[in-house]
Amino acid sequence: MTERTGLITFKGNGLTLVGDGVKVGDKAPAFTALANDLSPKGPADFAGKKLVIVSVPSLDTPVCDLETRRFNTEAAALGGDVAILTVSMDLPFAQARWCGAAGADKVTTLSDHRDASFGLAYGLLIKELRLLARSVIVVDTTGTITYVQLVKETTDEPDYAAAIEAVKAAS
After folding, report:
1. Strands 13-18 and 125-126: what pairing?
2. Which of 145, 160, 155 is nearest to 15 (CA)?
3. Are 170 and 50 in contact (CB under 8 A)?
4. What is the CATH number of the domain that holds 28?
5. Residue 168 domain-assigned (yes or no)
6. Which of 46, 59, 98, 163 could link 83 by a cystine bridge, Cβ 3.0 to 4.6 Å?
């Protein structure tokens, strides 16, 4: 498995990403993660919609909490042809608890804890922490990646405006 360094940090310390990264123009790799009800989900379950795949280290951290709440709010303005998936290594039960407490009902949380299918397929698994790197990936209705934002410092928020513009521009 490919290991990549020099792309992200945590509090200034370099980390290793496992898996090949994705880039604009690639077909979105398949993956299987668990929904809050423990059912398997992947991109095929959202066929025909634009996808915003937001990967976060853990919903139980301040930046991930803030980021997921922000995308939940933005979802309402993006329309019904857009699905926002927030993927983390949190257990499905913890994700369900977080969604209930946060009132997050517009994003779909998916747990990659079982086999890191998403993290490995998208090259976002942090080797040292077995968490996911913070990123935003936009996939158009044909399954093609149109935007990739890998947040360099894991404790920073993504560029929301750029991500939302990328969703609006995707076909």
Report:
1. antiparallel
2. 155
3. yes
4. 3.40.30.10
5. no
6. 46
Average pLDDT value for the chain = 96
By three-state DSSP, how is residue 5 classified? strand
Query: What is d(CA 109, CA 137) in angstroms, rounded to the nearest whole number?
Result: 15
CA dihedral 22, 30, 125, 37 (to 10 degrees): 140
| 149 has pLDDT over 90 | yes
Q: Tokens 């922000």 — which residue? A: 70
Q: Of 18, 51, 53, 64, which one is the catalytic site residue? A: 64
Quote the tokens at residue 66: 């803030």
Q: How far apart are CA 56 and CA 68, in angstroms?
A: 9
Q: Give the predicted TM-score (pTM) of the model.
A: 0.96
pLDDT of 11-51, one tens digit each? 999 999 999 999 999 999 999 999 999 999 999 999 999 99
Over residues 67-111, the pLDDT tens digits come to: 999 999 998 889 889 999 999 999 999 999 999 999 999 999 999
H or E element in which residue 112 lies: none
Residue 156, domain member (yes or no): no
Tell me whether residue 99 is one of the annotated catalytic residues: no
State the residue range of the domain holding 46: 3-150
Model confidence at 114: pLDDT above 90: yes
Evaluate whether 71 touches 59 at the Cβ level (below 8 Å).
no
